[in-house]
Amino acid sequence: MPTITNTPPKRKTSKTSSVTKNPVVTSSPLEKKKKQTQASWDKWVKECVVSVSPDVWLTHASELSHGAQLLGDLKKIPKQVLLDTPTLDYLFRCPSHLSHNALLVLNDEEVECLVSPESLLEWADKMRSGQYMISKESGFFDKIFARFELKSVVATADVYQKYLSLKNPNFVDITWERKPGNMIDIRLNTDERPTRMIASHALLLGIPVISPDMRFNAYRKEGLKTIW
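^ thats the sequence. predicted structure below, dont judge the formating
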């Protein structure tokens, strides 16, 4: 059983970026503030989150499938990663939901963690639809970015061109064994905009996506790598 930390420690900002072909990374324009204690952060999170719909990110089937697999440690920690929306939410709200490999990466101070604006839009849409209700909207995303030293990537014309040109099946089939001899099969829709857009960003940057969502498997033939 991997050791689960309540909140991955803050990371150092990388001195140099490994991405040179497309400079789309920007720092969050936040002023330096006094570090919030773990206790006060946990209190803020508890007060902030009002309610979250079950399987709000539609990853339950994916996580059941992951749970039925034997996952080994990463052989190499990447210098940069892109967090998808469920990973970003887990980092903020329930770090115990993060996988062992996800924690290995997030706990590494040398790893630069990036977020696509598509994730923020997806999260905001869940809030607007009432599936993810919070009580403290003012500065919500800025506070999370500051706490975990995240960086936002810019949606350039190249990203949208990649979004248009991606070729992938409209679904991916996943299987897991609920109990000996009882196999469960399910088909996931992979062509929804958030998944496709986040995959486009990661492919353009040449970095892996941290995600429990197996819909990203549809983009493996395009060269997408995932961590979970």
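Confidence is low (pLDDT under 50) at residues 13-20, 27-32.
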